[in-house]
Amino acid sequence: MDQASLLxxxxxxxxxxxxIKIPKSNLVGVFSPQPIPxxxxxxxxxxDALSNPxxxxxxxxxxxxxxxxxxxxxxxxxxxxxxxxxxxLLDQLHNAGIHKDHMTIMVTxxxxxxxxxxxxxxxxxxxxxxxxxxxxxxCSDESNQTFLGLTSRGTPVWINKLVVQxxxxxxxxxxxxxxxxGYSGGYKLIxxxxxxxxxxxxxxxxxxxxxxxxxxxxxxxxxxxEEAAKMIGMDMVIDVVLSQEEKILKIFAGKPxxxxxEGLKLARDVYEVDFLNQVDIVVSSATPYDLDLYxxxxxxxxxxxxxKPGGSILLLAACPDGIGGNDFYQLxxxxxxxxxxxxxxxxxxxxxxxxxxxxxxLASIKADKxxxxxxxxxxxxxxxxxxxxxxVSLQSGLDMLIDQYGHHAKIAVFPIGATTIPIVx
Length: 425
Hints:
Layout: E1 6-13, E2 16-23, E3 27-30, H1 42-51, H2 59-62, E4 69-74, H3 82-95, E5 103-108, H4 117-124, H5 126-131, E6 133-136, E7 145-150, E8 156-160, H6 161-165, E9 168-174, E10 177-178, E11 182-183, H7 197-204, H8 220-230, E12 236-242, E13 248-254, H9 256-271, E14 272-275, E15 279-285, H10 293-304, E16 307-316, H11 326-333, H12 339-348, H13 353-366, E17 370-374, H14 380-385, H15 394-405, E18 411-414, E19 421-424
Parallel strand pairs: 3-18, 4-5, 4-9, 5-6, 9-12, 14-19, 15-16, 15-18, 16-17
Antiparallel strand pairs: 1-2, 7-8, 10-11, 12-13
Helix pairs in contact: 1-3, 10-13, 11-13, 12-13
């Protein structure tokens, strides 16, 4: 094919980029988060947010000296710049009369693996890492949980005991796309962040009710987790909306409800893209959630919304941490399971519900679409065992699909596929 008729694109792949050439006549578009300019001075942005909180007094207006404070931060799988925000927050707490011995910084993992020392250091920064008490939430540690009651949807709520026993709870997180809850942010630092495995399993059993409703924040899972988290509450949350380059666009601080309402408006402007007609092929990078396959599947979910029945998703996912656990691998590799079989697992609480929910999602997508994955972090044999096709390279995979669907095939590209929400008109 004439080189002039090809468009060359670079897609993120881990810390590198991979080039791909696409026939211009086939390309419907390249869809990414909107390129909204980042703030000029992050320090000024942090200071302004903390000085003018939404629906709340500033820290010095409600914090009482001598009390215990827990600061909740998201984990290594998220790009929230906690290391930039923490020093300013800690200074304000000190000025309000809180001694460092009465502060705990807790990494809110939900069901994710614990962070390594290096990952915690990177998240917090050297001075905070060396100078403050740091804990990591373990959702399976029942001895360190307090029962708070049942939500109206029947979710039993157990929360980390240290969080419950603290006088004040302050969170640092981000508002971004979440296939489970529409968007992250607000109360998600509590549930699933510092909730028990049983609470998370019960809450996440509601996820299938929102399958395919991307960007919707009125989903049963989201409403349930908010109700559960409000049983203990947060005194302040500091949520960041980030650009496609992971730069700060704006910081919102204040009461979780106010922060989420205001931050969501900007997040929608950033992450949602209009999409007119479904296509035959989507080429997507799982950036920025490509640490493992468990995280990268969100890019498949968003791509699924714009691919015709019988079409294909070609995913680029580095996955340096591999699949995301042997239990998850064994579940997805059972090719005899139909989508509804995974719902039996969800109902019976067979294994981890989050795995079964993703198994249901993948099985539903694979029922009428093909998924092709390029990943150095997962062996081709393991990918094939899980029902994925394994092209030798991104380019050869695309060329193969164009041959398969014909030279009039329509192609869409999502360079940052895990945080780009297509809104099909």
